[in-house]
Prior knowledge:
167 residues, ph1033 like fold, 3 helices, disordered C terminus
Amino acid sequence: MELVSRVEGIDHWRTWFWDDCDTHGMFGITLKHMRRIQGCLEGIPPYDFGTMIYLEDAPYFRFSGQSVHVIHGPYIVVPSDLPPKSFVAHKTENGIILWCKRKAHEGPWSDGMKTREFHGIPYNIPQCASYYEFFPFRFRIERDISFTTRWMPHHKECRYCRSVEGH
């Protein structure tokens, strides 16, 4: 879940856990991207209630045999109550936006294999949440009323492949 690109002023996060994020209504990051959420990077406002993001279903690009990025969204960042065993990492006047779960290994992201189907063909997708410390920094998301899934063709100067790591 660590790669992010900025397309038309909106963050597009690449994730191997899209279905879990959508089901649980939350997205997770590591310390590396916390400053992005807090608005500490030039030209990127802090995340707040109403911030729009998109999520790319990364396994599709790798396993489907198609040169296509599957982009879901927009999602809207929403304030959250502080979950148990967590502390606030970013708060605005609208409420808690980002929190850190002390026992991140408790889920919802984990290690293992997940079977996903693309075009009727099952693929075993590796889930390696421990590599990313189980994404301890989390924020709530909801589907926007304009939510859709887009199939964006990949090309040489692909804007979805340009990562702004650490930015």
